[in-house]
Amino acid sequence: MDFKKEFLKYFLYWPWFALSLIVCLGAAFIYLKIEPATYQTSALIFLDKEQEDKSKIITITTNQKSSEENMENEIRLITSNEFLLNVVKNTNLNISYFEKLYSVQNNVVNKVPFIIIPTISKDSLPQVSYEIQIDDKGFVITDPDTEKIYIVTGYKGNQVVEGLPFKIQLAPKAMKNPAEYYQNEYKITLEPTAIALKNLKASLIVLSSLESKGTLEINHIGSSPVRSRKILNEIIVLLDKNIVNNKQKLFVNTVSYLNKRIKNFTKEKDSIESVKEKFLQTNDILVMDNYIVEKTADRSIKNASFMINQKQISLTRYAINTIRNSSASSTLGSDYNLEAPTVNQMLLNYNTKLMDSQLILQRAQKNNPSYISTMGQLSVLKQEILKTLEGYLNFLVQTDKANVYEQNLADSKAKSIPTKDKILGNINSNLIMKEETYLALLQKREEAVLNGAILESNLQTLNFPETNYSAIFPQPRSFMLGAFLFGLLLPFGLIYARLSLDSKIHNEEDIQKVLADIPMLGYIPKINTDGKLDNTANSRSLIAEATRTLVSNISYLANGNKEDKGNIILFTSSIQGEGKSFCAFHTAISISNLNKKVLLIGVDLRNPQLHEYFSLNKNISGLTDYLSNKSDDWKIFLQKDTTFSKNLDILVAGEIPPNPTQLLTNSNFESLIDEAKNLYDYIVLDTAPVQMVSDTLNISYLADVTVFVAKYDYTDRSSLANINSFIKKEQLKNVGILINGVNMKNASGYGYGRNYGYQYQEVSIKRPWYKLV
């Protein structure tokens, strides 16, 4: 890309850039003067989450992110409608006060010499503005929308004016000297609470610091730093009160809950104790450990007693059998280990008696009455012993049955000990748990009461509200830079769009994009009407020099004509108005000034123009007369040029015929050309546009050089595509391109600029700069 060329292409429109910059920078400057600056006021607060957790009565451990890191609840609270509604009410944001100055308007001020007292609910206030002036009688209030004026008499605010939603009174300080404020103009703006809340919410920014956990940055954007600081202070105060109130509510709710739980746990504990008491009474248990020892020992005693009784039964039965089977002279055993003293004594008596009988038998015979009496007594005694043993045996048997029952009972009680111990253990566990919970609840209640007595906020203000007096909007430097860039880009965009949409030709490159293989013969500058005939042999005008260059290039292109006859140069264009007649006229003059004999023929029979350049009558006889009547000699229709060159002859078109195509295609025109080639060095043909009619295509074969004229900023590039089609079909031969009407002031790509050569000054063309586009 040729950057210099691109720059020059846009530099041609420098007046538009200058005008755009002046307008944009001027508008930006004025806007900066009339628009109040917007500032950012910031405050930094810290919420000690660790202190909050320590002061909680009940803490719950979760796997979620620590509350120290989570400030979303506080941000939601600060930006909530209910919270901000209190800020609006406490700071009276429904009413805005302004002081009208010369350079800055709508500058919010907090100190004004009067006080507005709404006479209706702030929620119902209309969204309206009033202009206020103070005079010696009171206040003059104007509604700028309706231009209605309200007069308030006096300064004390006792008067209620119909149509005004407020009363107004002078401030106590201003009451001392009201005349001090007579020249000042003020403005107030009223708005309902809903609108004020919406505006406050839009101007408030609350951010959580990522670097310092638990830190919140509160920003307010507004035109009044004093008011912004007041709003932020109110937010901090309300947030602090909210924290304390929440803690107070938490304290009240916690104590109430603990009291209910303590009451419930008291009932539950008493119920468990009653169950335990009933259980112990039912099971005859005083102390469980003693009960276990007692029942275990009882079972052992019962088992031992059963075993002893069984042994006595066995011994008794053995003794009965032994005694029953013993002889009358045998002694009875006394070592049966029976626990019956009577039986043992009777056995001892029986043996003593038997020893007495043996002594008697030693002294006397068996028939001795003493012996017989003793033996009779022994028999009776033996029966008594047996009877006594049988009675003892029956007693033992009955005792055994009782022992079995008591043993089973003792075993049953012993086996039920684990179950009773488990039941009692569960009862004791429940009772212990209830007692521990009960004690914990009592402790928590005491802690809650102590914490409630010393409630304090965990909010700390790290940075009190401070205003950054470097305006956020509008920022003068950035705003002016933006206006400067916009001032450049706006015309650039418009020019770029115009150039992109423009399909006209403006330079040689535009033509070469379509007709790449067609040579460029030159260009003709645009001149004013007075200078268009300034093309004499000694002329130094741009038109004279341009046509001389054109003639040189045509001569080079016509070198292919080997015949020693005149060269035929055909001038044509795509459409009407591209200046082919003008170019043919100047070309013929420039060639004739080179001492060449030139014949200029007006072949455009439909729209003839050559007669105007020679100040000839339009209806003068010419080519049409000859073509329509060959018997006439065409030379009689020639006009001699006496103004520019004696070597130039002109054959104008003559009157416009009804059938120009038929006239040009008959043999008369070809005969004219053949004859003229022997008489002239050059024959210049001014023909009709090729895109409109076929006249030129019918005679184009006669030309040695075809000069296709394209007009600067007029000819469409699509027309060149059609000409390219004619060239490819060889309907036009040996074609060269000539650009006509080039504006030397704003044209690019021609290599000349404002001076032509080094000594030929451009003809002065007066054209307003705003018509460059």
From TrEMBL:
InterPro entries for the chain: Bact_polysacc_biosynth/exp, P-loop_NTPase, Wzc-like_C
Record's keyword terms, sorted: ATP-binding, Membrane, Nucleotide-binding, Transmembrane, Transmembrane helix
Entry keyword annotation includes Cytoplasm: no
Signal peptide: none
Entry's Gene Ontology cellular component terms: plasma membrane
SUPFAM superfamilies membership: P-loop containing nucleoside triphosphate hydrolases
Keyword Transmembrane attached: yes
NCBIfam families from the UniProt entry: eps_fam
Name of this protein: Capsular exopolysaccharide family
